[in-house]
Amino acid sequence: MFFTLNDPSHWAVFCFIFILHIDPNSLTMCPLRINGSPNGNVKTLGSAGTIFEAEDSDILLRIMERPRAINVSFEDRPSNELLSNHFECLSPHGRRSGFNSPRSYTSFEAHAMVGEAWENMKRSIVYYRRQPVGTVAAMDHSVEELNYDQVFVRDFVPSALAFLMNGEEEVVKNFLLKTLHLQSWEKMIDQFKLGEGVMPASFKVIHNPVRNREILIADFGESAIGRVAPVDSGFWWIILLRAYTRHTGDSSLAEMPECQRGMRLILTLCLSEAFDTFPTLLCADGCCMIDRRMGVYGYPIEIQALFFMALRCALLLLKQDQEGKEFIERIVKRLHALSFHMRNYFWLDLKQLNDIYRYKTEEYSHTAVNKFNVMPDSLPDWVFDFMPTRGGYFIGNVSPARMDFRWFCLGNCVAILSSLATPEQASAIMDLIESRWDELVGEMPLKICYPALESHEWRIVTGCDPKNTRWSYHNGGSWPGNEVSLLQTIMVYFELHYDLVRSFVFAVLLWLLTAACIKTGRPQIARRAIELAENRLSKDHWPEYYDGKTGRYIGKQARKFQTWSISGYLVAKMMLEDPSHLGMISLEEDKQMKPLMKRSTSWTC
């Protein structure tokens, strides 16, 4: 039986089926087709030197799908053999996406946005002495550039993955080597010398008129908001080095003495012994993607997940020489402690939330249940309604007498890809996202964190930051995406249950979300997310983020032609076309690292 929503009788039957919650798995609907037009107002980058910076639809049927997680090893099998049986329907042609001739995708029409995105990517490339070394953060020349004319380490990661998937390895290799060279510089902020292993947040190519040659200028935090060094840059560098090695099959770059030394310097900073009683990494506010004061100081989930993934990547890259073996031994010990700590104390589900609600305080001795002396009265009201019966997530921060219950997207996605989350926890995270679409998606998905800080709390935590006002930028802002136009025409019943038919896109995080969806066996979520992105991203000139509680408005300070929005879309598109690309950015669970879970888990509900 075929359904068409253009037929009123079919529409009535469809509504009846949906309202009664009758399982419509036997029905077949025509695939959604979205036709996009290229944006003709693409701005070009004037200088090579830059710093780092329906018709008919099966969308409702796909919401009901709940595939099983994929159980494959990305370390032991060739990448071109991965997931072929699981995702035949996504890539029947088995060809690589061409840089100049983007090909069509099953379930996606050959979209003009792909070609436009690649053209913008080409324009964003930064050259140093005629060699490509990265991509500029944004190409919006209608406003003051500030530091958006730089090549940022974290921003370049999705660009690098897109280039690798497209067979353009040179720019990635050059980037890794240039940032490694910058790491060796002496780093001074005022009268204080930074650690030798600190990687730059960004760099810029400028022309020296005296020497008549191009030179690099790096920013290690001395020019950043709040003057905070980037903790995440070193982790992203190691993760990208592993992705390059995994994709190309060429280990010669990682085995270079300079790269081995660079990794060891980064690891020395992270594995050094101090006064900490936890295996997590202590950080200042503004040290990662959320680079402004947002109350993420302490042990933020984003840094802990990246730390865990970088350690696991380093295990695969370090040579088995005398120095390498010493670090490998330290990494293994830290990973065991870190995985136990994160899976037990950062994990929150309904049962654990109830346990915290009933905590006793002022407990002493080794038998204490409330080990961090968290006050039950400090639990925010919103978390009780936010937590679904089935689902869970890694909370934002855990430290003495403090739990930050906010949801942070990047940290939870990286936790899935690095296997910091167990398979059961990964599934629970996806359950939470699906259960709380309305809160995490809105009209312009996806929230970088939830909920937003408001009123007095906003003034105290952010210091009255005018850029991070409620539901804006890092404070609950939505980053590019949109709902499919078909959904705008659905009748009142569906408006009342709109959270059931939304998907989500966070263009800079879209590739991470897509990878997490594929790894957990839910590619249909990523497919819908990409369809949503294609409806508005190009029309809005690839903005950095959106404002408003539901993400309806382009951010008041958002840059247009944001490179990570463009590259995030491309990586997600190519990853769905060829899921074997997941092997670049995904690590399978280490069974030896799986501790006994002493706390309740949501998936047993």
From TrEMBL:
The keyword Hydrolase applies. It catalyses: Hydrolysis of terminal non-reducing beta-D-fructofuranoside residues in beta-D-fructofuranosides. One of its GO terms (molecular function) is endo-alpha-N-acetylgalactosaminidase activity. Transmembrane segments: none annotated. Keywords: Carbohydrate metabolism, Glycosidase, Hydrolase. Signal peptide: none annotated. It is an enzyme of class 3 (hydrolase). GO terms for biological process: sucrose catabolic process. It comes from the Eukaryota. Its EC number is 3.2.1.26. Invertase that cleaves sucrose into glucose and fructose. Belongs to the glycosyl hydrolase 100 family. This is Alkaline/neutral invertase.
